[in-house]
Specification:
By secondary structure, this protein is an all-alpha fold. It contains four helices and no strands.
Length: 91
């Protein structure tokens, strides 16, 4: 099958997900998170696509932009007064 699946993400979603992929891939935790090695292929494809489309990767204020994107996503998903599940967890 040569059909493609198209996934649409907001810029903030793409940015935060790209950072998460980077952290997981570089931590060596991918084996524990994704036990089915067939799933790695689409994960690497998504990760690579995100890395090549996001200019933030090369900006000096990367960390600030990432935190702002995270805050916007959490607020949009959970609102201002609700703490997101795992909000105290790093990355």
């Amino acid at each position: 099958m040569d059909d493609e699946a198209i996934i649409k993400l907001s810029h903030d979603q793409a940015f935060v997900l790209s950072h998460w992929f980077y952290e997981v891939e570089n931590s060596g935790e991918l084996d524990a998170i994704v036990r089915d090695r067939a799933v790695w292929s689409p994960l690497h494809a998504i990760s690579g696509a995100l890395e090549t489309t996001l200019a933030e990767m090369f900006m000096p204020d990367y960390c600030l932009r990432l935190e702002e994107a995270r805050e916007r996503l959490v607020t949009a998903t959970y609102g201002d007064s609700v703490e997101a599940p795992g909000a105290d967890a790093a990355s």
